[in-house]
Each structure stands twice: as structure tokens, then as C-alpha cells.
Amino acid sequence: MANRADWDAYADEYQSTHGEFLGDAGFLWGPEGVREDDLGALGDVTGQDVLEIGCGAGQCSRWVLGHGGRPVGIDVSMRQLQHGRRIDEQHDVRVPVLLASAAGLPFADDTFDVVFSAFGALQFVADAPALVADVARVLRPGGRFAFSITHPTRWMFPDDPGEEGLVASQSYWDRTPYVEVDDVTGQTRYVEHHRTLGDWVGALARNGFVLTDLHEPEWPSDHERTWGGWSRVRGVLTPGTAVFVSRVA
Ligand SMILES: C[S@@+](CC[C@H](N)C(=O)[O-])C[C@H]1O[C@@H](n2cnc3c(N)ncnc32)[C@H](O)[C@@H]1O
User: Fold this and answer.
1) Is this model's pTM higher than 0.90 or not?
2) Burial class (CB in 10 A: 0-12, 13-18, 19+), 208
3) Is 28 helix (H, G, I), strand (E, B) or coil?
4) How do residues 65-110 score in pLDDT, each as one tens digit?
5) Hey, which bits of 86-240 come out as E strands?
6) Residue nearest to atom 2 of ligand 1 (CA)
7) Which of 16, 75, 99 most suits a substitution to test ligand 1, by most atoms within 8 Å of the C-beta?
8) Considering only CA atoms, which residue is closest to atom 17 of ligand 1?
9) Secondary structure of residue 138 in the 3-state scheme
10) Which of 63, 92, 139, 206 would be a feasible disulfide site paired with 143, CB 3.0-4.6 Å?
């Protein structure tokens, strides 16, 4: 709930800052600029029922639509979804979306062939193993699950794109969430959760997934874009994004 208010407030700035880089029907896995056209993490989506968790303005789902899939997006932020509708109208397409949290997927069992999330909700939900179990529930036998998150090793460093972001200052194994509290109301404004690589692999394995790939995109030589804590300074030395690709066994 805290993140809903935060994303509603941030959505306009997010889309005006990053919208062009994302592309209206682009599928970006992370700030390094690696795209689904290059990774192929979802496989051929033609004729597939595809769920995007934390779809934002639906750029990735629009890519799925353009590649012959049947996408559905969920997002916790109404403002992000409104931006999606604006982009839909500009391109005369319609990505079906739901205002819903990933903490309890509002779908029946065996509904999708593919579930994915590109920096969507995985690191924002308190109970990630429960979400992974829920994804397994809504996937059909043999279905794919792919998601990108901040690379877990980044947790050790300050979220600073400069030199300060290169000095480890916190334990990799400290799972205490990052929490921002409003100075005036005292209410929680933003929460982000950390799990180690082992935590993610364990959550997938315990819920019947086979991990088929773990991509750690390198910083491209011609890429100069700074996005939050992601920058060339850090990107050439440490991985900033992890893309997990898995399949129901
Ligand atoms: C960094 S954006 C990523 C979206 C898209 N892939 C992009 O690159 O713009 C994260 C999105 O996840 C959504 N989100 C955060 N927590 C969520 C939750 N618990 N359930 C569903 N969506 C959530 C936010 O509202 C936001 O639109």
C-alpha cells in the first residue's frame, strides 16, 4: 500500500524521464538497456497467454501484443496504468490491465503460459516466496517465469551512481528492508526488500521451477545513461541487474 501512493506520485516524472528510453512498445529488462529482442527469455509468445506483474505503462506488454501474444498487465499504481492507456490510445491498441497488487494474484489456477516482470513487483513485495508460489499456481504445466530485479549484490553498496556507490557498506546477508518514512505523517512511504541470489534460487526450486538461465547484463561500451543508482561508473565493475529465467518442471 505504501508503494502504491509512492508510484502514483512518481508516475508522471517516471514516464517523462524514462518513457522514451523504454519505448512505447519496447521490452527493456533493465537500465543497462538489454532488451527481450536480444535475450529471448520468454521464448516465442505467439498465441500465448502472458501475465506481466508490475506492468507500469505496459511497454513490455505492448511488445508482447506486437509479437502475437495475449498479454494482461497488473500494477498497483492507477497513475502508471493511466499512462499505459494514454500510450495505447496513441498507437490504437489496447493492453488489458488490472489495478492489483502482486501480493495475491487475482487469477484462477493454470491461466497463463508465461509470467514475467521487468523490475516490477518482485523486490517490492514482503513475501517473495509466496509470490513465486502464486506464479506457479497461475502458470500452466511447462509455463515460463522470467523476472528482472536489482542484482542482489547491489544491496551491499549505497544507491549512488558515483564513486561512493562502489564502496561496500552493508552486509549482503542483511535482509532488513529499505524503508522510507514520511517526516510529517510518520507513515511508511516506500519499501524495498532484499533477497540473496540463493534466496531466489531456493524460492524457485521449492515451488517446482527449473532455473534455465540467470542473466547478468554487462554495461554496454556505448551506453552512457545514468538511471538512479545505475551508471557507467558502477556498471563496468559490478552487475546492476539480474534476470532470472525459469520454467515449471
Ligand atoms: C520500475 S517500474 C517497472 C515497470 C516497467 N517494466 C517499466 O520499466 O517501466 C515498477 C512497477 O511496479 C509496480 N509495482 C510496485 N509494487 C507492486 C506490487 N506490489 N504489485 C504490482 N505492481 C507493483 C509499480 O507501480 C511500477 O509501475
Assistant:
1) yes
2) middle
3) strand
4) 999 999 999 999 999 999 999 999 999 999 999 999 999 999 999 9
5) 97-99, 112-118, 139-150, 178-181, 188-192, 209-215
6) 120
7) 75
8) 121
9) helix
10) 139
